[in-house]
């Protein structure tokens, strides 16, 4: 059982008040919606979400909503971050690919649990910003790369899990190929109406998919679209 009374060590830029807000966020937004994975809850308590938004948004960092981070992108609602992370069923030794670094928050939560996180971001400005932020916060098990998320990071494959934080209109085959056999990918798919899918790679190289919940993510952009 997760211990809401236990204190965590405050990192630079954190405060006891923000820690209390984080505990409230986990209790009211995550556990109350039946996400109870102790690894996920501990990771979300350890990561100061307010460090991943602009200073003017800090007071809203623990609200039950996504927040804008610039470049037409958002930091996802806390419940969605928890739900997607829990769907991977992580146990601590995994290598994970994240498609869409955004603010770096999802990568930081993953990095509290797993051995290594590789994250790809299509915005050059965000890549620089998130790499500096994660370095300052001491996350030395995360690698950030500028690139087209549809292509993944084949040089680092295979991955035990993949988290996609923007919505394509189909499941990219290149990402499935980079999953190890038995690996899991959580990905929002759709345009106007999106659903969060859990994709599991099978022994013959194909995959099965399960529809989980309706979601709303920013569209996943290809490099060719960005340059037009």
* Poorly predicted tracts of residues: none
The biggest beta sheet is recorded as: 7 strands, mixed
The CA-CA distance between the termini, in Å, is 51 Å
**CATH domain class name of the domain at 69-226:** Alpha Beta
* Widest β-sheet, arrangement of strands: 5-4-3-6-7-8-9
Query: Which architecture of the domain at 69-226 would the CATH scheme give at its second level?
Result: 3-Layer(aba) Sandwich
Tell the overall outline.
globular
Q: Provide the helix percentage.
A: 25-40%
Counting helices, strands and paired strands, the structural category is alpha/beta
What does this structure look like?
The protein has about 230 residues and is an alpha/beta fold. The chain has a domain at about 70-225: 3-Layer(aba) Sandwich (Rossmann fold), CATH 3.40.50.150. It is about 30% helix and about 25% strand. The protein contains seven helices and nine strands. The chain has helices spanning about 15-30, 40-45, 80-85, 105-110, 125-135, 175, 225; strands at about 65-70, 75, 95-100, 115-120, 140-145, 160-165, 180-190, 195-200, 205-215. It has a seven-stranded mixed sheet with strand order 5-4-3-6-7-8-9. It has a two-stranded antiparallel ribbon with strand order 1-2. β8 (about 195-200) and β9 (about 205-215) form a beta hairpin. The model has no long low-confidence stretch (mean pLDDT about 95).
């Amino acid at each position: 059982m997760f211990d809401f009374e236990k204190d965590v060590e405050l990192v630079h830029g954190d405060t006891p008040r923000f820690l209390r807000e984080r505990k409230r966020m986990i209790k009211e937004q995550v556990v109350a919606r039946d996400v109870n994975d102790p690894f996920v809850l501990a990771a979300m308590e350890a990561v100061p979400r307010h460090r991943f938004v602009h200073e003017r948004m800090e007071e809203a960092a623990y609200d039950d909503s996504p927040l804008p981070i610039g470049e037409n992108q958002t930091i996802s609602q806390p419940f969605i971050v928890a739900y997607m992370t829990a769907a991977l069923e992580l146990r601590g030794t995994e290598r994970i690919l994240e498609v869409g670094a955004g603010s770096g928050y999802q990568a930081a939560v993953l990095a509290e649990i797993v051995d290594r996180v590789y994250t790809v971001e299509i915005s050059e400005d965000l890549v620089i910003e998130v790499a500096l932020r994660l370095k300052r916060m001491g996350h030395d098990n995360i690698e950030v790369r500028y690139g087209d998320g549809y292509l993944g990071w084949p040089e680092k494959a295979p991955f035990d899990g993949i988290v996609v934080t923007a919505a394509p209109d189909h499941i990219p085959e290149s990402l499935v190929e980079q999953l190890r056999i038995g690996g899991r990918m959580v990905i929002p798919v759709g345009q106007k109406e999106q659903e969060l899918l859990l994709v599991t790679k099978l022994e013959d190289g194909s995959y099965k998919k399960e529809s989980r919940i309706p979601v709303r993510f920013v569209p996943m952009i290809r490099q060719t679209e960005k340059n037009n």
